[in-house]
Design a protein that fits this description.
By secondary structure, the chain is mainly alpha-helical. It contains seven helices and two strands. It is 74% helix and 2% strand. The longest helix is centred in the N-terminal third of the chain and has 39 residues.
Length: 168
């Protein structure tokens, strides 16, 4: 506002450094892919745990089916177990992550060995994380949904047990 019109040209940084924009987009895509892989691994772990629970309690599921428990009630019971597993996993994971972030928020991660000749690290080579409540909430919601979806197959499997076969 204080200069004459046409005296200076104002250019957004995205136009001045398109390589940084591409680097940021690549970083975001890589991060999303890694998070997706982590959630797939977590889902497989939960499904494996719940399958193990069902096989260990094969006779118990046969017994409760024999005394009249409906398949929907068995699915609900196994789904609740999966839900509790997800709640404890969220609590433990959130607690560990908050402890790690609070420690690293004070001490940081020194990347000077990797960034000394990189022209884009002008703000410093020590990274310090910050925690956003929205990220914590969304990660916990996604974890709970992943747990419930991963536990659905073992729950349906348990509800379809033949009581006679399970008791033998």
């Amino acid at each position: 506002e204080k200069t004459e019109p046409g005296e200076h040209r104002i250019t957004p940084w995205q136009e001045m450094a398109p390589d940084i924009v591409q680097l940021m987009e690549l970083n975001d895509a890589t991060f999303k892919l890694l998070v997706g892989i982590i959630f797939v691994i977590a889902a497989m772990g939960i499904a494996n745990t719940m399958n193990t629970v069902i096989f260990e309690r094969f006779r118990e599921f046969g017994t409760i089916a024999a005394i009249g428990t409906t398949p929907a009630e068995i699915v609900t019971m196994v789904s609740l177990e999966t839900l509790f597993l997800g709640v404890f996993a969220c609590a433990a994971g959130t607690g560990a992550a908050l402890l790690a972030c609070s420690f690293l928020g004070v001490h940081g991660v020194d990347l000077s060995h990797f960034t000394s000749s990189n022209q884009y690290f002008t703000a410093g080579a020590v990274l310090k994380p910050s925690v956003l409540q929205a990220d914590v909430a969304s990660a916990n919601v996604i974890t709970m949904l992943t747990a419930l979806l991963a536990g659905l197959y073992p729950a349906i499997k348990a509800s379809r047990l033949n009581p006679v076969d399970a008791l033998n």
